[in-house]
């Protein structure tokens, strides 16, 4: 089922402590908001309406840089107002389903979304729930405790999934002075059927300072580091320059290939594709297609990077080794690192470019061509 999502991130989050709202605090080195956005993007969200407080638009753009389909929306005084604003931002081309999610639940995964969408097939709304395990008490004005029954009580989490049209209609019809406590209320008001789906303790909400300590411990379980490897080789032919790692180097030969024959970028592209199981460069840019004759290879790398980010992934670092007797790489190495850092949008210290000869052995040793190999680390949901 096609779906988009609204992420509510306009709250102040005062109970969580810290000097800034919890959605902007770092969790395992990334803003909490980005965790939620990456998880929903990896699950296949067509668009993400991220609703933030007035003045936080630039912070959101920075935190969400590179995630596809993001629309940053200004929220309202209440959460319900923010959800309305998010729905309105998706109204020009709504998906069949819409998920509403709290940014403060950072560990949403594709499996959570799959369960909700399956439950939504025969309903107008689906919400993840957990049984109440703890004994519940109520305090009186005097401070005395009384025990409450847990019978029939459930804990409700987000994301919650709805038919877009039903949720939008429900919010339009909501006239109560008190805003709804969750997004199922407006759907119920519109006569929709809301069903329960299995929740997950991993969908914890960051509410109090101690929650961040627990979340840091869980962060490693919520993300996976994948390693991708790429290799490419090209022969020398007539020409006066070679392209390597996005840098043009004057030389008495050129590299021969269907595109600009940048072996460094080709190997790095294959490494990114390999890390997310998306085949190789030939699958995406067939050498038989004349469209790519003489093409600049940076567009291949940008395509692979977009696929990584579209899957909710983040490149951690890249290491490229150029195997050649010529041209000399060392004078150009820093320019290559800078170009790769620019293309991958990474700090320079996460980019490595090295060169090694083969001691006159093999085709590189005979100066018939050169080769490149690349390794990348990619963090994904």
Work out the strand percent: 25-35%
Mean pLDDT: 92
CATH architecture of the largest domain: Alpha-Beta Complex
Low-confidence parts lasting 5 or more residues at pLDDT below 50?
none
Number of beta strands: 19
- Shape, principal axes of CA atoms: elongated
Q: Number of helical runs?
A: 12
Cα-based radius of gyration, to the nearest Å: 26 Å
Determine the fraction of residues in helical runs and give it as a percent range.
Answer: 25-40%
How would you describe the overall organization of this protein?
This protein is an alpha/beta fold. It folds into 2 domains: 3-138 and 149-222, Spore Coat Polysaccharide Biosynthesis Protein SpsA, Chain A; 224-380, 2-Layer Sandwich (60s Ribosomal Protein L30, Chain: A). It is 30% helix and 28% strand. The protein is built from 12 helices and 19 strands. It has helices at 32-42, 57-63, 79-89, 110-120, 164-173, 184-189, 209-222, 263-275, 281-284, 298-310, 333-344, 362-365; strands at 3-9, 26-27, 30-31, 48-52, 70-74, 97-102, 125-131, 136-139, 145-148, 154-156, 160-163, 194-198, 224-237, 241-244, 247-250, 254-255, 314-323, 351-356, 369-380. Strands 1, 4, 5, 6, 7, 10, 11 and 12 form an 8-stranded mixed β-sheet that branches. Strands 16-13-19-17-18 form a 5-stranded mixed β-sheet. α8 (263-275) runs parallel beside α10. It starts with a strand and ends with a strand. The model has no long low-confidence stretch (mean pLDDT 92).
């Amino acid at each position: 089922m096609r779906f988009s999502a609204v992420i509510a991130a306009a709250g102040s989050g005062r109970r969580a402590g810290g000097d800034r709202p919890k959605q902007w605090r770092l969790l395992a080195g990334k803003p909490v908001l980005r965790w939620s956005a990456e998880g929903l993007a990896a699950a296949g969200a067509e668009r993400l309406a991220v609703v933030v407080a007035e003045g936080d638009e630039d912070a959101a753009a920075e935190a969400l840089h590179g995630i596809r389909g993001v629309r940053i929306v200004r929220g309202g005084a209440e959460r319900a107002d923010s959800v309305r604003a998010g729905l309105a931002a998706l109204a020009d081309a709504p998906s069949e389903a819409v998920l509403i999610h709290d940014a403060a639940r950072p560990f949403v995964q594709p499996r959570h979304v799959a369960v909700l969408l399956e439950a939504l097939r025969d309903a107008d709304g689906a919400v993840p729930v957990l049984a109440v395990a703890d004994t519940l008490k109520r305090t009186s004005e005097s401070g005395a405790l009384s025990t409450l029954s847990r019978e029939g009580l459930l804990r409700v989490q987000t994301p919650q999934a709805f038919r877009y049209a039903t949720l939008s209609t429900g919010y339009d019809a909501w006239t109560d002075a008190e805003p709804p406590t969750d997004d199922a209320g407006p759907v119920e008001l519109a006569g929709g059927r809301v069903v329960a789906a299995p929740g997950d303790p991993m969908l914890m909400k960051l509410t109090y300072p101690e929650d961040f300590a627990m979340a840091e411990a869980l962060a490693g379980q919520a993300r996976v580091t994948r390693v991708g490897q790429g290799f490419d080789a090209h022969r020398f032919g007539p020409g006066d320059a070679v392209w390597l790692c996005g840098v043009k180097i004057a030389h008495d030969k050129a590299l021969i290939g269907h595109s600009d024959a940048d072996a460094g970028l080709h190997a790095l592209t294959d490494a990114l594709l390999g890390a997310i199981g998306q085949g190789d460069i030939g699958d995406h840019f067939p050498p038989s297609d004349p469209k790519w004759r003489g093409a600049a290879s940076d567009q291949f790398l940008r395509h692979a990077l977009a696929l990584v980010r579209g899957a909710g992934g983040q490149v951690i670092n890249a290491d490229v080794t150029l195997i050649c007797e010529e041209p000399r790489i060392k004078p150009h190495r820093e320019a290559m690192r800078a170009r790769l850092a620019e293309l991958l949008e990474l700090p320079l210290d996460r980019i490595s470019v090295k060169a090694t000869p083969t001691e006159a052995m093999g085709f590189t040793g005979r100066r018939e061509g050169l080769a490149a190999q690349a390794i990348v680390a990619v963090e994904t949901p």
